[in-house]
Write a structure and sequence with these properties.
- It is a single chain.
- By secondary structure, the chain is mainly alpha-helical.
- It has two domains: 70 residues, Winged helix-like DNA-binding domain superfamily/Winged helix DNA-binding domain (Arc Repressor Mutant, subunit A); 102 residues, Orthogonal Bundle (Arc Repressor Mutant, subunit A), CATH 1.10.10.10.
- 56% of the residues lie in helices and 11% in strands.
- The strands form two sheets. Strands 1-2 form a two-stranded antiparallel ribbon. A two-stranded antiparallel sheet has the order 3-4.
- It starts with 8 loop residues before the first helix and ends with a helix.
């Protein structure tokens, strides 16, 4: 590919448009440069110009840089109409439980299943497994402070699905709250509460259960000796 001729500047933009229309995930300027022969800088410049042109023309779609690459997205102003259209033929949307669990993981990652349960207040193991299957969440290691429990975080697919350039672009959760009660819930359960403190509560409960089991075992042994 080293002898590949660079594309004429007049054809570069329409060619990039055609390629991005069939892309199923964000494509980096470097990857596009390897195909077209232009430098990554030339590609990035053309993409930035296209993005600005779409914005100036108030088109129904946008070209955005997310997750290390570029991809076409529908304009947020037409979200409701697009959502209604898509849901008319696509019923595979996330449930309320899945959205809640995904929010907990996104804003508290890395986090264990017990950490998610502590915040949501219900067992979320099945939901976490479902999010892993969908590619939105992944295992990233073990929590050495809490019995080698698996730690979870969001994936690049998550960034792509929600149109985020990085996790730093996660919005303030409270802006999605429909009322003050919901905002208070978010402050207490998703924003203001420490995962470490909730896990300490869980550890205390487990310690109590272990102590009770040890007492039961000691009583059983004593009863057996007396017999």
């Amino acid at each position: 590919m080293s002898d590949l001729q660079s594309m004429d500047s007049g054809l570069l933009k329409p060619t990039l448009e055609a390629m991005l229309l069939v892309a199923s995930e964000p494509v980096s300027a470097v990857a596009l440069s390897k195909i077209l022969g232009n430098t990554p800088g030339e590609i990035a410049g053309a993409l930035a110009e296209l993005s600005a042109e779409y914005a100036d023309a108030n088109r129904g779609f946008q070209l955005r840089e997310v997750a290390g690459g570029w991809r076409l997205y529908t304009h947020p102003a037409y979200h409701e109409q697009v959502e209604e259209f898509v849901l008319s033929w696509d019923t595979k949307k996330l449930s309320q439980a899945a959205l809640e669990t995904l929010a907990v993981i996104a804003y508290h990652q890395p986090v264990t299943r017990e950490g998610v349960r502590a915040i949501r207040g219900v067992n979320s193991d099945g939901v976490v497994s479902s999010l892993v299957d969908k590619g939105l969440v992944r295992e990233i290691g073990r929590d050495t402070n809490h019995g080698q429990a698996i730690l979870y975080s969001t994936t690049q697919v998550f960034l792509e699905r929600f149109g985020l350039k990085s996790l730093k672009a996660l919005p303030d959760l409270e802006q999605f709250a429909p009322d003050e009660e919901s905002k208070q819930f978010i402050r207490e359960r998703l924003s203001g509460r420490s995962i470490d403190s909730t896990l300490e509560d869980i550890d205390e409960d487990l310690d109590e259960e272990r102590e009770l089991l040890e007492v039961d075992e000691d009583n059983a042994e004593a009863s057996s000796d007396n017999d």
